[in-house]
Amino acid sequence: MTDAAIETHELSKRYGALTALAGLSMSIPRGSVFGFLGPNGAGKTTAVKLLLGLARPTGGDARVLGASISNGEAHRRARARIGYLPELFRYQGWLSAREVLAVHAELIGLDRSGWAEEIARVLALVGLAERADDRIANFSKGMQQRLGLAAALLGRPELVVLDEPTSALDPVGRHDVRELIRGLRSEGMTVFLNSHLLSEVEQVCDRVAIVDHGRVVASGTFAELLAGDTVRVKVTGAAPSDLSAFGTADVEGDWLTVRGITPERIPDLVAKLVASGGRVHAVQPANESLEDRFISLLSER
Question: pLDDT tens-digit profile of 197-234?
């Protein structure tokens, strides 16, 4: 039994001569918040469709909650434990929020005796408890986004797939959704977050994958992805004159800046400074921002 909520191996999808996904391989641990990033046309939406059974792969395979997407019956049962908020959706304006959620409760097979309690729970989670009986036609786009999120959370799914969940929300709404996602993680749910808002991803995700041209070009924790090649060390006393083995060194006052150093060599650098009689007061690795790393990776390709 794997600990991964989602695993893909060389998953691919072609539409005639167009390759939408060209061998996607990644693993998403259970109970984590996973950010799925990439430019427009990178294959993110295609990947989501394949994982949810909305399209069939051309090659490769994936397992979602332990079930292969090529095993129709097993994948169907697994999908019953997934909540999904698509990027584009529309509800009938004449229905109330409570009625929309009742329709979804029917579709996912919730026991009718528990509908009222479950609908009240998810409406409260997304801040719509006081608007439960208002017509959707009177909802702002942000309120409809909240309602879509409530629908995705019905039945306490094991995996929640959110496609641009904060795109229509104001800053307060985005903050509320971030807090909600953190709460889902604390309950043991896995959240798959497809977003182009890098700042949002950076604040809530445990791990990320950056996709371009249908392949993962980088993945891991933020510490792994954003580790830079520069470190600043505040050192007093004697310091060795030759640090070329570590990179290019510059001195400004008590601060030594070394560029071109790998994170693994930083302890060796500190040890050499101390062995030479220096006193180290601070060590500051210079990490990249997620935006810088994102743009750098795409530029390299």
Answer: 788 888 889 899 988 888 888 888 877 777 767 888 89
Whole-number Å distance between alpha carbons of 291 and 294: 5
Q: How far apart are CA 94 and CA 86, in angstroms?
A: 21
Is 33:17 a contact under the CB 8 Å cutoff?
A: no
Q: What is the 8-class DSSP label of residue 206? A: S
**Full-model pTM:** 0.79
Give the DSSP per-residue string, 182-202.
Answer: HHHHHTT-EEEEE-S-HHHHH
Parse the chain into domains and list their residue ranges: 4-221, 227-300
227: left (phi over 0), alpha (psi -120 to 50) or beta: beta
At 4-39, the pLDDT tens digits run 999 999 999 998 888 888 889 999 999 999 999 888
Neighbours of 192 (CB within 10 A): 23
> Which superfamily does 4-221 belong to?
P-loop containing nucleotide triphosphate hydrolases (3.40.50.300)
